Amino acid sequence: xxxxxxxxKLATCAAACGLAASAAWPAQTLTYTFVNDTIxxxxxxxxxxxxxxxxxxxxxxxxxxxxxxxxxxxxxxxDGSFSxxxxxxxxxxxAKLDEHFERRGARAEWHSTTERGAATVAGSAMYVPxxxxxxxxSVFIAALAKSADATMPLLPNGTLRIRKIDEIEVTNGSQxxxxxxxxxxxxxxxxWFEWITTGPEPRLFASADLAxxxxxxxxxxxxxxKLEARQRIAEQAALSERAARLRHPLPxxxxxxxARVFDSDTATLRPAADVxxxxxxxxxxxxxxxxxxxxxQEIDAAGRVLLPGLFDMHAHVWRWGGLLDxxxxxxxxxxxxxxxxxxxxxxxxxxxxxxxMPQITPCGFIEGRSPFSSSYxxxxxxxxxxxxxxxxxxxxxxxxxxxxxxxxxxxxxxTVAYAHSRGMRVSGHVPAFMRAADVVDQGYDEIQHINQVLxxxxxxxxxxxxxxxxxxxxxxxxxxxxxxSKPVQDFIALLASHQTVIDPTLATFDFMQQRDGELAAAYAxxxxxxxxxxxxxxxxxxxxxxxxxxxxxxxxxxAKMVEFVGRMYRAGIPLVAGTDAMPxxxxxxxxxxxxxxxxxxxxxxxVATRNAARYTGTxxxxxxxxxxxxxxxVLVDGDPTRDIEDVRKVAxxxxxxxxxxxxxxxxxxxxxxxxxxxxxxxxxxxxxVAQAGAxxxxxxxxxxxxxxxxxxx
Length: 713
What we know:
By secondary structure, this protein is of the alpha/beta class. It has three domains: 8-245, no CATH class; 258-286 and 299-309 and 623-681, Roll (Urease, subunit C, domain 1); 310-622, Metal-dependent hydrolases (TIM Barrel). It is built from 18 helices and 34 strands. A hairpin with a 4-residue loop joins β18 (253-263) and β19. α6 (383-395) runs parallel beside α7. The relative contact order is 0.11.
C-alpha cells in the first residue's frame, strides 16, 4: 500500500489492538524489502535514526520501467506525531517531490508542489504526507500506542480507524516474533490490511497486496506465505460480508416497468417498455403497460433510461475495486494484466457469489525478460516459452493475449500466429524498438492506449519505450503532429483496412497534461463527492512539467490525442472503452472524452456496450437489452443519450441475479451519492400472499403476513 493522502482524525482502540505506549524505535537502522513474484525485489526502504532524533528514510521502487525514488527526513514530537517532515525526490512518472511540514507550538504549516496549508492546533495532531514511503505508517502506529485516549487529530482532514484482526507468530532462523494483522479504514475507499509488531514499541512489519507482492522487514521474507494466507482469510471474510449485505436477490420473475431502453445496435432510445427477468436472464421486452402475470418483484423505472451493463475494457482488477465498478453500472470488465493466481481466485470467488465484482473477461499477459519488465502475467525469453505461456492461457479459457513492452520483437510474428491458432485474439503495447504499424502488420487485432498508437510517428529504431519515454515523447511531440499529412492518413487507412481495434484509455492519459496543484480533469466532475483525502489526491500531478511553456505544450498534445480518437472513429476504426485507472468513475470520464472527440453520446454508449461485447466474444450474452441475454442492466436518471454526463446518475444496477443500489454502495465507501432516490423493488400482493401461504403455519401470523403483502402493493 502506498500512503493515501489526507486524513483528519486518527481514531482507534489502542487496547483492542494490543498497542502499548512506547518511546522511539530501538534500532538505529531498519530495512524493508519489496518481494515480487515475477520481478524479484523491485525496491527497498531504509529507515535510519540518528542520536539527535532525526529519521532519514531512503526509498526506491522500480517496476515496469518507472517508479519513485526519494528521501524523507522527519522528527517526532513527544506525543509521537510529526514535528517536522520533508520529502525530496521524484514520483513514479518523474514529477518533482518537494513537501514540507513543520509544527511550532500550536501553529502547523505545510507546503508542497501541490498545495499550501496551515492550521492552529490544540493538543496532538498528525500530519499525513501527500505521498511518501511506508515509514509514516509506523509513525501512526507508534503514536496511537502513546495516545492516552486512543485518538489523535490528523492534518489536513479525514478519519482513520484501526482494528485488530488476527495475531500469529513468525520465525526467522532462531528468532520468533509475534505480529498482528490490523485493518485501517478511513484512508481512501477501501480498508487497508497491514501486519505490525507487538510489544512496547509497535511498528509496521509487513504490507501484502495479495496480488503477487509484499513489503516486509528484511530478513523475514520467509514469513510471507504464512502472512498472506492468514490475511487472505481475513480479507475474504470482510468481502463476503460486504457482498451478502449489499447484494439483494431477485428470486422468481421480476419485471422492470416503464423503462426507456437503449438499443445498442442502433444507438437509439426505444419507446417505453417493460423488461422481464428470470434466473438472471431477460425473458421478454414488451411495450410498457403490458399485463404481468404473477411477477415476484416489480421495479418501477418511472421513465428512466435502461442501459445494457457497461464494460470497462481495460481493467487490472483487485478484490476491493469491484464496488466502484458496479456502482457506476459497469457489470463487465476485461482484465488486461494481473497476477495469474490472484485473478484465477477472483474468478472463482465472483462465480461463487462471495465477491462483489463485475463479470471478468481475462486477458493473458505476456512480457519479455528485461530490467524494465512488468510484474504481471508470464515473463518469457524464447519462442518456446512464449508458446507455453499461450497454452497456459488458452487452456484456462482466456480469449485474448496481451503483449507488453519488453516482449522480444524477433519472435512476435510467430507468437501472434500461434495465439491465433489457439483461437485467441492478440493485443497489447507495441514492443520496444517497433512501431504500431509493425504490430498491425504482424497480426495484432487490437492496440492498447492512445500513446502506443501515436508513438508510431515519434519513435526511431533506437527509442526505448520501456521507459517513461513512452509518455514523455507523446506529451512533447504530438502538439506539432500534422494529422492531415500523408504518413498519418496512410496509418489511419492501415488501421481501418485491418479493422484493428483501439483501446485509447484517454481519461488515464489526462495525467500528461496535469500540473501539480491542478484538479485532474478526469475526476473534476466527481471530486466534490469524494472523501477529503481522495479529493486531495486529485490535485497531485504525475509528469515533470517545469514551466508554463511545457504545460501549454503538453495540454495541446493531449487535446490532439482526443482529436485523433475522433478521427479514427470517423474512419471506421473500431473503438472499445477502457480505463486503466480508478474503476467506475474513469469509464464515465472516458465516455465524456469520446463525446469531446466528436462521437454523439449515444455512439459513446454503443462503444461501451455493443462494441465491448463484440470484442470480448460475449455478444450472445451481453451488450444489449434483448430476450435470452443476461440481465446485466443499468437504470439511469436523466438521458445519457443526449447528455453523456447523465451516465454518472446510476440509480439501480441488476447483475448476476441480484439488484444493487449505487447510493448504498457509494455510502459504504464514504462517497456522496450521485442520485437522490433508488427505484423501489416491490413485491406485488398476489405474489407475496402466495409466498406467505407456501410456508408453514396459519392463524394470526399468516394473516399478518397477508396484511403486510397487501400494504406493499
